[in-house]
Amino acid sequence: MKLSNRVLTLAICSAFTLPAMAANVDIYGKANLTLQSSDDGDGQFTEIKSNASRIGLKGTHALNDGLSVVYKAEFQVDMDGDSDDNFTDRNQYVGLKGHFGEVLLGKNDTILKQSQGKIDLFNDLNADIKNLFKGENRLGDTLTYKSPKINGFQFAGTYIAEDEVDAEDGYSLGLFYGDKGLKKSKVFASIAVDNDVKGYDITRATVQGKVGGFVLGAMYQNQESDDGSAEMDGFVLSAKYALDKVVLKAQYQDADHDGSDDKTGASVGLDYRLAKSTKLFAFYTAFDIDNAEDKDYLAIGIEYKF
């Protein structure tokens, strides 16, 4: 682990010494910590939790007219001190971008994971949709392609190399429309599929848009394991409303497993923006799981982005 820390420190320091004309390098990060009362099903306890806090390097390097190298090296940082590994890998890749679109090699979120856009209003927190739904995968040995946008539409795909004898290649494909940040369009929509990705085949459809002063979102997902068992149908509904510096949020999830548990989750939250970079927030999440102990979480926190 000491070696990983040295490598990360060296990478960050090296970024400051790159010639100004050689590349566009951004050092960025996010610190997100909460003080919360948690019940994972075995009883209530208090904790201070780091929620996918991270630091990274990313940028571009123009090679010639219309062709650039793009790269990213991002690390998750354990800011609550609970983990033996202070730094763990997140998305890390290098590739080319041009008139043909973008091709990336390395470790990356699959296209199905990216297809959710920003519908998950409690991403990285206890209510993150990965707790009820398969498909939220960040995988190594991937090749990712994204086409140029044509009339708002974009095709994208992830190829996951088998990486060992007798394993199977995986594929994650998607079609997108609009801007997931809803800054250039009022609607974002996508449909995506996983084929043999971490043992599951998945179909996911997502839509999010602005309606009056609200941002409303919905996601449907069908998943089943490669052997045809463990089938699930589920959905997510989310809504948020901004009042000056305050954002009110709500989200509901339902995962209906064929012949097994029905799992639901409900969350409400409030964000208070102190500045563009900083917000205070609070949330409450409750999971109702058939044939298992329920779970709930109540938290207040701070997030700082740079």
Automatic annotation (TrEMBL):
Keyword Transmembrane tagged: yes
Keyword Transmembrane: yes
Pfam family, one: Porin_4
Membrane-topology descriptor: Multi-pass membrane protein
Compartments, as annotated in UniProt: Cell outer membrane
SUPFAM superfamilies: Porins
Keyword annotations from UniProtKB, A to Z: Cell outer membrane, Ion transport, Membrane, Porin, Signal, Transmembrane, Transmembrane beta strand, Transport
Major subcellular site: membrane
Signal peptide (from-to): 1-22
Top-level taxon: Bacteria
Membrane-traversing stretches: none
Coiled-coil stretches: none
Record text on subunit structure and interactions: Homotrimer.
PANTHER family to which the protein is assigned, alphabetical: MAJOR OUTER MEMBRANE PROTEIN P.IA, PROTEIN YDDL-RELATED
Protein name: Porin
